Amino acid sequence: MEGSPGEGGRPVPAGSGAPRARLSAPAGGPGSAEALAALGAMGRRLLWLLPVYLAGVALYLGWRGRRRSKEQSLRAAGLVLGDEEAAVSATALGRSLGQSQSQLPAWVSFPDVEKAEWLNKILAQAWPFFGQYMEKLLVENIAPSIRASNTHLQTFTFSKIDMGEKVMVNKKIDVEVKKFFCKAGVKGMQLHGMLRVILEPLIGNVPIVGALTMFFIRRPTLDINWTGMTNLLDIPGLSSLSDTMIMDSIASFLVLPNRLLIPLVPDLHEAAQLRSPIPRGIVRVYLMEAKDLQSKDKYIKGMIEGKSDPYAVVRVGTQVFTSKVIDENLNPKWNEMYEFIVHEVPGQELEVELFDKDPDQDDFLGRMKLDFGEVMQARVLEEWFPLQDGGRARVHLRLEWHTLMSDTSKLDQVLQWNKTLSTKPEPPSAAILVVYLDRAQELPVSQYFLSLQLKKSSKEPNPMVQLSVHDVTRESKVVYNTVSPIWDDAFRFFLQDPTAEDIDIQVKDDNRQTTLGSLTIHLSRLLNADDLTLDQWFQLENSGPNSRIYMKVVMRILYLDAPEVCIKTRPCPPGQLDVIESANLGSSVDQPPRPTKASPDAEFGTESVIRIHLLEAENLIAKDNFMGGMIKGKSDPYVKVRLGGQKFRSRVIKEDLNPRWSEIYEVVVSDIPGQEVEFDLYDKDVDKDDFLGRCKIPLRQVLSSKFVDEWLPLEDVKSGRLHVKLECLPPTYSAAELEQVLIVNSLIQTPKSEELSSALLSVFLDRAADLPMRKGSKPPSPFVSLSVRGISYKTKVSSQTADPVWDEAFSFLIKKPHAESLELQVKDDGHVLGSLSLPLTQLLVAEGLVLDQWFQLNNASPTTQILMRVQLGLLVSQHSGVEAFHAVMGEDNEESSLKGSETELYIQEDGDSRSMQELRQRMPHANSNLELSDSPLGQLHLTVWYNIDARKLIAIIHACRYWLEKQNDIPDPYVSLILLPDKSRVTKRKTAVRKKTLNPEFNEKFEWDLTLEEAQRRKLEAYIKNSISFMSRGEPIGKVHIDLSQKDLTQGAAQW
């Protein structure tokens, strides 16, 4: 009862167990259920809040990541701002500065293609003007080219050209061929290529940029979507018309070296320089050979396989050259050279395509491409290049990068090197000339307009300019109705020898007939100008008193800056390189003894002289036609002769299809295989000279046979042949032959040729010793300049030494050995260290015509000397048609000597002009041993000879001697010649007067244009007279009478 709470409410003791058990049962039932219910309700509420919690966590993590990313970007931006160039370069090359490329700022990116939105905006504004330009281009340039391509397309026109108001939107181009009632249109046109846009020059005013220059570095591709072509392609001749013709016209404006210039400001004076800047360099491409070409010629429907007739097309942008065709050869050899102007490197590339020549359509044999960046880096690149789409075919090319130099320090080396190259189809260039034609002022009104002053007195000329260098002529655009035109044109010319060439400039009216002024500039002026540039006004000749023209003329020297190439006097043939072997300079106490003789190589002195006689031509083709070819004219032929790097040009024969030149040229040659004597014939025209044919002779044939006399058929033309004689003159080392050589040269000398050479001077420069120091103690860098009669050469420069070794050889053609000398100067940067003048008469008296020793230099210390070998070889012609004349001694030859031609000598005695005592005697040759008493009346030394090649009778009056001693006064003699029976003034000749002498020397030559048959019917009388006064005739002293029918005129010989 005590423990029950219901009984009196007393508490139960805590220590009893039974009552505790009774209390737990009723408490565990309802309390546990409530707790579980509460926990379940709370869990359900938490489940509802879980997404909200997760979203909050995600937002926090995202915020924290973005914050860290911004902090890293800011740190990266700080690094970029600290060293922007290094950071961007390192990232672009895949090298980081502790962070990846993504860590760079957002504005730093390296896209492969840039959208160039700014250019799109410019194009949108310029598009209407571009449409006007395209309309002019299609109508004035492309349409005439298409009409001229085929007779069936003479009515081809662009009937509608609409480029739309927006870029490439609603454009339409329609074409029409009226003859065949066919029309077509252009629905779409795309041009694919790399376009370069240059904004220059920068100016201080709006629009900041003076001009916009655009060009394609490489030839782009053109896709045209034609419409209405079903009927158009049925027109005869149009089926062969492709997009290439249109692309060629576009390339002539937009592909290097052509540029499209859009001036943004008026009066832009730099327009010509922007349109045609100075090139980056010149690449000389040697197309040598190809191998393993595919056979394209099939016979009997492919059953029999033939070969191919390959030729090559060498292209750099719009500069295109085509090689000759090699018939039926799968391994052709061209050995041709071409020169290309290069502006953008890297970027521009060389493309060589090979084709098989066929009567209809040429077959493709393969192509190769090469970026000029590789050539500029290598300087000289010679390889076999595989041909794409050509199977196993390969092509052998040699490419040389020639730097453009603005000074003349290397010009002599370049000219010397080029002389040794025998290249086809043109000789190598030594320089490039760029002419910027700006404007002219106060040109005269042409005679044509003066004659029409009654009708249009205010009419002014339409001036244009023709510029010519050698045989290349360029023309400027025409500026209408002005005497002060502005052309803003630029022209380029390649120069073979800038020291000897000129540029001829003629300002003409548009009809090309009236000359408004002319100007000739010797290009040697540029060699002495600053930066090889003339930028000035030039006074016009044959024009008004104030007529002048403004031009900028720039020359650049082409120099092959290849360290492995050594430019020598006689370098190796093309395709091989002279390697400079560096001297192994060691240290030794005992210096080697100084040599006493020069040590030339085995080839020294082995050169020969080739004498080229350009005689005549026959059956040349007529190129001058009139009235559209209805009236056939003739031609004005001239010849270009090339051998051993030297080029000659004959005079022009007007209107003659069978011209006679009778000119002689001389070239020093070495026996290098592969050289040829080349003759190219042209018809001289006002603009471009027409080709009349070519022919050639291998040099080895002339060297082996010593003499060639042939009629050579002309190649690449329908008719014509050329008559030439070539003689090899090896040097003869005997002074006794000199008189004979001079006589023969005087006989065969032609009026239109230079004086013939009588000897070859060979000089080998070995070394020098004890040259003076520069500025006290610094050793000089010497070189040697040698010259004979204005012809000069230079050695290489020996760097910083007072004892230089050159080991170089030079050759000079000598006209008169007894009157010429070798001039030598040792120089250092323009300062003369010593000089030497060696008269060639010292060689004439030396044994073997050779001097090999140390020579003391003038204007130097006594110990300053130079070691060289100098030898003189006489050029004795064995095939000149002149009888050899030798001195014969002894009585055995006296009888034959006395069998000379019989002459009659008439002597007038003193004081009696009427009485003439006739003395007849047989005059001996000069080589007889008769004493003076055997010929008491005097003698006349003369030569009579008929030159078959020139078709002329020649008489040379050499001298007179041993006059009568009865003369009271010493006479002033001269010789008068007359060719009988004709005594007219036409046949009379006379020498100059020699003052106060009994033994006058004349050495004068006279010619008569006669046939050999007519000359043999004549008689020659030579009167020796005394000149009394200027107004009176000479007083006769004596005469010589020669019957030409009794002489062999084809064998000339000097006689007394």
UniProtKB/TrEMBL annotation:
Membrane spanning residue stretches: 46-63, 197-217
Biological process terms in GO annotation: endoplasmic reticulum-plasma membrane tethering; lipid transport
GO cellular component: endoplasmic reticulum membrane; plasma membrane
UniProt entry tagged with the keyword Glycoprotein: no
Molecular function terms from GO: lipid binding; metal ion binding
Cellular localization per UniProt: Cell membrane; Endoplasmic reticulum membrane
Topology in the lipid bilayer: Peripheral membrane protein; Multi-pass membrane protein
Domain C2, first and last residues per copy: 264-385, 413-542, 588-712, 743-859, 936-1056
InterPro entries, per database record: C2_dom, C2_domain_sf, C2C_KIAA1228, Ext_Synaptotagmin_C2A, Ext_Synaptotagmin_C2B, Extended_Synaptotagmin, Synaptotagmin_SMP
Function description: Binds calcium (via the C2 domains) and translocates to sites of contact between the endoplasmic reticulum and the cell membrane in response to increased cytosolic calcium levels. Helps tether the endoplasmic reticulum to the cell membrane and promotes the formation of appositions between the endoplasmic reticulum and the cell membrane. Acts as an inhibitor of ADGRD1 G-protein-coupled receptor activity in absence of cytosolic calcium. Binds glycerophospholipids in a barrel-like domain and may play a role in cellular lipid transport.
Assembly: Interacts with ESYT2 and ESYT3. Interacts with ADGRD1; inhibiting the G-protein-coupled receptor activity of ADGRD1. Interaction with ADGRD1 is abolished when cytosolic calcium increases, relieving ADGRD1 G-protein-coupled receptor activity. Interacts (phosphorylated form) with SLC2A4.
Family, similarity comment: Belongs to the extended synaptotagmin family.
Protein name: Extended synaptotagmin-1
Annotated organism of origin: Anolis carolinensis (Green anole)
Name of the coding gene: ESYT1
